[in-house]
Sec62/63 complex, subunit Sec66 (Aspergillus oryzae), 270 residues
Amino acid sequence: MVNWLSLAVPFAYLGVLIGSLATFSSLYRKRKAQKAYSLEPWFPAHLQRDIYFSLLHIDPPATSSKEKKAPAVPESVLKAALLRRAEEDIKRVLALRSQKQALGVLLQRGSVGDDLWQRFQRAEKEMEDEVRDVVSEANAYVPGWGQTIFQSANEMMNNTLYRERIAEQQAKLDEERQWWEKRRASIKEGFMKELDAEDSTSTAPPQKTEAPADTTPTTTSSSTPAIKTPESSGAPSSVTGSDDDAVLVEADEQPGSPASPSKKKKKGKK
């Protein structure tokens, strides 16, 4: 006879074990989902997407049943709103690509927690869905437009960046002009001071140099007579010497003249 009680115990154990595992897994998934939804989004609210959906879902004005209902918003306005939405998507995709590598390195080093990585992965998934939605909406307006809509949005983004830079430079124009006027005035003032200093130095020295110019000729004239040349200093002595020699020669040439008086005269003159 089969003992059903002994067979029921293992089956009951397996049922309790499987039920507890299923309950734990379901609770864990719910908590994880709640935690993921409770995390702060990586990007702020998508304003361009909200504007597009608000324009798309505007109710058309009430008309008679015979007339065809006109769209509440023109198609061109919806296309422009979709382009703005695609432009914002490009900015967010570029931001995610530039941040992914740095965030992965920080996660490997343990510098950031898993919550931040989960936020980043959630943002990537949302952007993938957003890009698909934009492409499908573009193809709904014009077949094949979804392949070129992001290229057009990229050109619009570059044009917007150029306009913002030009506006920034124009805003700084007045400030730079005022700064340059002050700088030019200071430079002009410095040049005028230098010119005044040069004029004062150029006018003052001639008054001081006129006195030496007048005194130099007097010093030269007074100093020149002090210099004795052989001709000027020796001229009288040579004349007197030549006269004495002539007298001596004449005395010697006279006949019968004694020699002693001439010698005495010569010695006396010497």
About this structure: The two ends are 190 Å apart (CA to CA). DSSP finds seven helices and no strands in the chain. The chain has a mean pLDDT of 75.
